[in-house]
Amino acid sequence: MVRLLVDDVTLHKTDRIHLHVRFRGGQTHSLAVAIPPTSWQARQTRPDTVAELDRLLDTHTDAQTADALNVAGHRSGENKPFTAGIVVHVRRKYHLPSHAERLRAQGLLTTTELAQRLRSAPQHHQELDQGRNPQLPQGKRQE
Length: 143
Fold this sequence. Notes:
- By secondary structure, the protein is an alpha+beta fold.
- The chain is 43% helix and 16% strand.
- Among the domains are: 2-36; 40-96.
- It contains eight helices and three strands; from the N terminus they run αβββααααααα.
- Strands 1-2-3 form a three-stranded antiparallel beta sheet.
- The termini are far apart.
């Protein structure tokens, strides 16, 4: 049906797409439209969301960061709610350190790392974390 009305169509791509249509009978029509973003550009996470994610990772794990972003109304680049996996993906894409890496940069250690440095068993440090003294009989709580 369109073939009966249109004689010729010319496309010219510069910073925009220029469309020139010549109809049967000699009438012409020109149109310029913006070039649509590529699929990966259309699915990028917004810069303000990435900045908020980076800020939250100072005090939150990946899962906690996802929950906080969802509560604040942020969405992923695909307009989905954040999950821990999406936070990990965005964190890696933008080379952001994880919560654990940020804590290590401050000099903090996990129980296992502390035990390795002190050359003792990690369970002793876990018992101390829970308020029990492994030196007391049956690991009773120290008051």
